[in-house]
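Office hours follow-up: a student asked to see two folded examples consecutively, so here they are.
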Amino acid sequence: MIKIIQETTDYLKNKGFDNPEIGIILGTGLGQLLDKITIIKEVSYNHIPNFPTATVEFHTGKLIYGTLVGKKVIVMQGRFHLYEGYSLTDVTFPVRIMHALGIQKLLVSNAAGAVNLNFKKGELMLIDDHINLQGGSPLAFKGVEKLGERFTDMSAPYNATMNASLEKIATTHGIHLHKGVYASVVGPQLETRAEYRYIKLIGADAVGMSTVPEIIVANHLKLPVSAISVLTDECDPDNLAPVDIPEIIAMAAKAEPNMITLFTELIKTI
């Protein structure tokens, strides 16, 4: 793994990915942030040695390097998921690469369903904690201790300082920002009514198919991280409508500007 990380890092450094400060992972249907970035270099995932390739049609699949509000950033335009057939090691490999390139903070976004029915589609949720329902760990491989502490502490996986700043920014800009627990499932199928009831019962406020593996690896690397869910649908088991993927993507695009404000204002301060 160390050799593979070095090979990929060297390739990107040679492409001009020079001392980035902040990494950003963009979730499903979320890409408008790129309009705010002065792009210096971009590389398709399928050109990067050892990188997986995004297979979801609304995940573009590029690693982008540039500046945002005066800071050097790396942006993953499109992420990887277990449901695409990748391993948890594959899914989290880009986090290790961004860390090896030098990022000091990581910001993550995703599209999620609101299980807490006080939360509405089109709103945002700051992730305060999570529940891993993906049935595995990205740290469960031989030699992981060479990359960081095997028994990684997860008592506070989301950085309290950055989260407090995001809440303050939301108040300042009049953005309705919930705070809650995110449950991560494998997918790609959506949940049944019974599964939504279960997810709510165990304490989750939102559910999605990503993010938790990347957060675990960020903590393994002692990389401060914050994450925001864009709530794209309401998961009411007593009034559950068939899934409408185009509507979910449209709702993500509608809610995204508020997420962009939160991220850009935070980046100014870190």
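And the second, which I mentioned at the end of office hours:
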Amino acid sequence: MTESSQPQMREAAAPAKTGAAAQPPGHLFCFGLGYSARRLADRLLSAGWRVSGTCRSPEKRQALARAGIAAEIFDREHPVPDLARHLAAATHLLSSVPPDGAGDPVIDLHRAEIDAAAPHLAWIGYLSTTGVYGDRGGAWVDEQSDLSPSGERGRRRLLAERAWAALAQPAHLFRLAGIYGPGSSALDTVREGRARRVVKPGQVFSRIHVDDIVNVLTASMARPNPGAAYNVCDDDPAPPADVITFACTLLGVAPPPEVPYESADLSPMARSFYDDNKRCRNDRIKHELGVTLAYPDYRTGLRALLGAGY
């Protein structure tokens, strides 16, 4: 499960605004205004911040403009025109752009401008994944654990983390677990008839509600610690089949039959998620940033989504 650009549905009842949203309004420039970054942008806009950044299509650019966000088209073939001017107006910088086979597009194309802007930026953040830890056979990992990704996507993320950490002002690294939230949860998977209960004994995944990602990011903005890494996950790593079963219970439908992992017809991408089996600790976001998770487990999160009409 990774950062996506799925459209937002109607606004859910949001947790109390904390962190950067409670600070004097600033200006966030965000490379990649996808699902999580857009959720952060909406929180900051409601607190009087300015938000600008990048997207990948003219249609998305128009939608962002309607929300009050000025965006430039960006990908490896389209660098941001006059980025130095954009960054000169920004106080905070975030990237949610994933690396590709050639590296991190933002660093490759714009490292010089970011380094030049570093002295006046209050905060730089990079959205990574817990995939950098690799497979631990279900054992616990924290931010001090060795980084030994088991797949190509994890290896790309680790290289990207190192590049962002080597900036003139090191970025804060946020290792996101599987993201869910409004319009993108097991509830939607069940309703759309795509739910499967793939069973691999002992397999667990960590997860995080998108609004808790926003809570962590805003708390970090309020307490900068350049170069720090944070696991952004809830308190309850769990088997994926359990989440589907619970979503079916909430919706009052029969769960799909269990399918053994060995015989499941999974895409290479889906199968790659099962290569890693670990439990991620989140003590640092609580103790260093003072974050109290609004959704400490998937049951709390899914109940809240259903109650809000998602």
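Two things to take away from it. The longest strand covers residues 123-129. Confidence is low (pLDDT under 50) at residues 1-17.
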